[in-house]
Amino acid sequence: MRLIGRLFTHIAVRYLPDAFVFLFFLTLAVLGLGIFWGDGHEPRQVLDYWGNGFFSIYEFTCQIILVLVSGYALAHTRPVRRALIKLTHLPRTEVQVIVATTLIAMLCSWISWGFGLVAGGLVAREMGIVHRGRVHYPLVVAAAYSGFIVWHGGYGGSIPTVIANPGHFLEAEMGIIPVSQTVFSIGNLAILAAMVLVVPAVLVSMRPRADEPRTSLPEGEQSDDMTTAPLPERSHMTPALRLEYSRLIPLTLGVIALLWLADHFITGGGVNINTVILGFFALGLLFSRHTREYITFCTGGSRTAYGIIMQFPFYAAMMGVISGTGMATDIGSALVSIASSESLPFYSFLSAGLINFFIPAGGGQWIMQGPIVIDAARQLDADMANVAMAVAWGDAWTNMVQPFWTLPLLAIAGLQIRDIMGYTSVIMLVTGVVLGVAMFLI
User: Fold this and answer.
1) Are 99 and 204 in contact (CB under 8 A)?
2) CA 300, CA 98: separation in Å to the nearest integer?
3) What whole-number distance in Å separates Cα of residue 385 and Cα of residue 185?
4) Is the pTM of this model over 0.90?
5) HSE-up of 365 (CA within 13 Å, CB side)?
6) CA 76 – CA 360 distance, rounded (Å)
7) What is the count of structural domains for the chain?
8) At what angle do helices 384-398 and 417-441 cross, to 10 degrees?
9) Which domain holds residue 111?
10) Residue 46 belongs to some domain of the structure
11) How far is CA 230 from CA 123, 248, 287, in A?
12) Where is this region: Disordered (predicted)?
C-alpha cells in the first residue's frame, strides 16, 4: 500500500497539470470528434453547438459558486470555528485523533463540500497543534481530506440537489427527483454508514508504529485564539462605517432568510440546491459580528471559486457539441449494449471515477456525463435516482487522488499534496471496492 501511495504521489506531483489544461485538450478532442461523428458535421455547425452550449447553464454555474462561497463563509464565522476548536480537545490518543478528525470532516462535508474542505483544514491544523508530538500530522491532514469522500452523497451534494430543483437542465429527460430518493434513500444512507466505518479504520491502520518517528507541526504554529481586528472607535466612524460595522444588518438579513426557509418547508417545499444556498447564507449572516466581517469571509470564498468560474462554461460548451452531434445518444446506446438495468449504476460509477480525473468538479462532470447516463437509464428502464447517485459517488471516490480539491484544505493545514497523497490513494483503493459492491446492491 505504501508503494502504491508513493506511485500516486509521484504521478500527481510531476505529471498532473491544472484542471484548466485538461479542459483545453478535452475541448479540442470533443470538437474533433463532433466533426467526424456519425455521418460527419460541418465545422461551422459543430462550432454553433459549442457556442450555444457555452451560454446554456449560467444559472447552474452561479448556484455551484454560491454553494462554495456561502459554505466557506459559514466555516469561518466565530461560532463555527470556536465549536470546531473545542472538538479538537476531546481526543486523548492518536487513534482517537485520527477517528475524530475523519468523522468531523465527514459531517462537515456531508453538510456542504465548501464547508467541509475549510472546516476539515481548520480541524486538522488544530489537532496538530493540540496534540503536537503525539500524532503524525500528515496522516491527520489526510484524515481530514478523506472525510471529503462523502460530500456528494450529502445534503450539499451537487447532483442530488440539482436534480431536485425545478428547471434543472435535464428535467425534460428525467423529471424532478426529490432528495428523499437520493440523499436520504436507504441505499445512500447504507453507503454513508459503510464509509463511516471503513475510512477511519483504514487510516488508523496506516499510522506509524510506536517506535517510528512522527512529523509534527513546528512549535511556531499556535492555536487560533479567535482574535479579530479591533473595531474602530464609534466616535471616529463615518455614517457609512457605522452601517458597515452594525450588527443589525447581517442579523436582520439572516432572520429574513430563515423565515423564508421556514415557510418554504412548512408549506411542503423540499430540499434543493437553492434552499441549501440560502440556508448557508442565513447562518453565515447570523453568526457574523457585522457586515464587513461577512464580506471578508465571502471574499475569501470567492477566491477559491475561480476554477468553477473559469471551467463550467467550457464544460457546457462541450455538452452542447456532445448533445447536438448525437454523440450522447450513441455513447448511451453503447453503454446500454454492455449494461443492464441492474449493472448500469456500477458502470456509471466506474466511468464517473475515470472522468473525474479530467473534470474534477462534480457539477461540471454532471453536465458532461448526465445526459449520457440518463439516456442509458431511460433505454434500460433503470432507476434514474440510483444512476445519478452512482455518478455522484464515482466523482467523490477518485477525489481522493485528485489534487484539485485539496487546495483549500492544504492551504489551511500548511502541507503539500505530496504529504498526504500516499494515504488518500490507499483510501481510494479500499473504498473503491466497497462502493463498487454497493453499486450492485442499491
Assistant:
1) yes
2) 28
3) 9
4) no
5) 30
6) 24
7) 1
8) 160
9) 2-220+302-441
10) yes
11) 25, 18, 17
12) 211-233
